[in-house]
Amino acid sequence: MxxxxxxxxxxxxxxxxxxxxxxxxxxxxxxxxxxFRVEAIESRPPMEKIKLGLPGRxxxxxxxxxxxxxxxxxxxxxxxxxxxxxxxxVRTRHRFPPAVGRWPPASTSPR
Length: 111
What we know:
Layout: H1 21-33, E1 40-41, H2 48-52, H3 57-73, E2 78-79
Parallel strand pairs: 1-2
């Protein structure tokens, strides 16, 4: 569900938020009508306060809990979550030379 955005919608009632059962049901039906099976959701609602233990984390956790419960109700078995705070994930290098039968390649191995 690459085009699915789980960020909160301002001025929208709780049942219209993207993690709500009505919203997830509508999205799932649209994908299925186009011939796709919804097997996973990779998008995430805001979770920075949870990750950093800041005030407001309980409200964010309630949203995450509702998302997971609603996914279960709809038979969507996989949620790709990410718990790295602030920067998401970072790589020191994005390009590696090709390697045959060896990981990491000798040219990039730490010494």
